[in-house]
Amino acid sequence: MAGMAADSTAAEEPSLTLTGESFVPVNANKTNGSRWQSFTDSDPSDKSFGPPQTRDKVGLPLIRDFNVSPMRDLSGWDGSLPPPPITGPFIADPELKAFTASLNNAGVTQIAYRVTYTSATEGGRVQLWQEATKENPVAVAGSDNLGFWGALPASPSCTFFVEGTSPSTVLDDVSITIHTPERQVGPPPIRVIPAFTTTKMLSVTPIVNAFSITLKNPPATTFVKRGNGDVIGMTSGRQSADGVQNGPASGEIGAKFSADLIRSGIQGEGRFIHIINAFDNGLPNNKAMTISNGLSMGWGPKSGYSLPLVDSVAGAEPFYYIILSSTNTADRHVFESEDTPAFGVTTDEMGTSTMTKFDLTFKATLNLVWKFAGDGTVYNLAEIGWQTIFRASLDAQGVLTRDAASVTSITRPAAPATYTVTNGDPVRMSIPAFSTSYEKKF
Question: Does residue 352 lie within any of the structural domains?
Fold first, then answer.
């Protein structure tokens, strides 16, 4: 209506905004420039041939960026304690992402914040910093297992930096809420201006969208036979025909590895690391197979080597091969591989004899890791334990018969979960590779 005064309350209402990216990378690489972890081959878990020497565990830094503050050059550090003194120049860490909180009302002098996690036990975790160099954290007034809270260091506008310290397990499992305090304004009658709040959802990448091992159906082992039908070994897959030239897995693979990662906001790619943990030879004298001619044998690491061993492609250690990359975009990486454990003897070793008993358990762990672009740092995301039991013996009629327990199975985690979330370093990253480091032992 003409002549009516404008409502002065609108100018007093605070208006908050919070801008920033929806995806923050886990800061697990080495902008700090530290060396790779190392081992000596006198270490019984990492033996190799040749004179004792120090080797790098390429991909595993002495210290990851989320454990360094302020961010600085640690390339000269040998890993001994204590770490070098905190001196400059400090380095802006590109994995930290800037967020800006803005308030349009100067009458409010403080912006409070709260970081909230959807899970108390796992998933995305972040830390807030005043600078990209990580010299000063944003002050924390309190915390619990679902997050932390405090006040931003500046008002009416504050730019702060978010660091990912643990990957999300689902999208948007981290939220940052900023709010103003409730306040009273006058002159009388006093009016209460309620707290004003805005929230930004975010995810720490990479996120495991799916990760599994799919076993042959049914997962029972089968015999490997030469052309005349004689059994010369066992496979977790299926031989397409007796005596085929292209091996025991030509008919069906034993296990397919599949991974699906959300990779928005982070540079690099997903990879598999496959670790062979054990050959359990189940017959006396550490043997796994007997033949009617009296020959017996088992399987295990060559002399000078020890388990675990990394099952990798020559020249690409420690990574397992990827046979299919159906999706590899800025936001998604989907890839697959496969394995078909199989053990047996050659036709020359068998001669005219027949197999009489087999008892071997093959145990492995498949790690899903992230390989950062640039420095090549490797960060573990999840793992699956699996095994194949190869077991057969002569029945009462003298016929070689597969044992009902002779199957491939997932050993961890328990169903219905398909993988275990873990960020600990893989147990093996370095040479020697499994393919050149185990043998048949007579």
Answer: yes
